[in-house]
Specification:
By secondary structure, the protein is an alpha/beta fold. It has one domain: Rossmann fold (3-Layer(aba) Sandwich). Helix content is 57%, strand content 13%. Strands 3-2-1-4-5 form a five-stranded parallel beta sheet, with helices on both faces. Helix 1 crosses helix 2 and helix 6 packs parallel to helix 7. 38% of the residues are buried.
Length: 143
């Protein structure tokens, strides 16, 4: 299974939130993981924000950022190139969708152009709804 890792799921895993085990299971079973350059930015910002708000220490932030870098090193990065920009700028099946979420869905669609069996790994409702409407499998299964 090939997976597009969206920021909400990756941040859940990084911060060891309640559903992080589901993210780990999907990532461990994936044969290939894609992520947008945006994922790296959003994950770094999420860690810096948590440190600035005193939710984690600077040392913990450094550790989380290093953990992310190690995880991402084995992923295929999708740059925010013209194809992604065009798709993200167009209407989506489930509106409204925020710009950054549209970039994620467009990036997953770009990955699907290379491989038909790409699934979207996300906890964001807008991302999940649009990915499903575009024919992507959405993970993890949330009951």
């Amino acid at each position: 299974m090939k997976v597009y890792a969206e920021s909400s799921a990756v941040l859940s895993w990084l911060f060891n939130e309640a559903r992080s085990d589901a993210v780990s299971d999907v990532l461990e079973s994936a044969t290939l993981v894609f992520a947008s350059a945006l994922t790296a930015i959003e994950c770094a910002r999420g860690v810096h924000r948590a440190a600035a708000l005193g939710r984690i220490t600077a040392r913990q932030a450094d550790g989380l950022l290093e953990e992310y870098r190690m995880l991402e090193a084995g992923w295929d990065r999708i740059e925010i190139a013209e194809r992604v920009v065009r798709h993200a700028s167009a209407p989506f099946p489930v509106e409204p969708i925020r710009a950054l979420d549209a970039i994620h869905v467009a990036s997953a669609s770009a990955a699907r152009e290379r491989f038909a069996d790409v699934a979207m790994l996300s906890f964001d409702d807008r991302v999940r709804a649009n990915a499903a409407a575009l024919g992507l499998t959405v993970l993890p299964n949330i009951a």
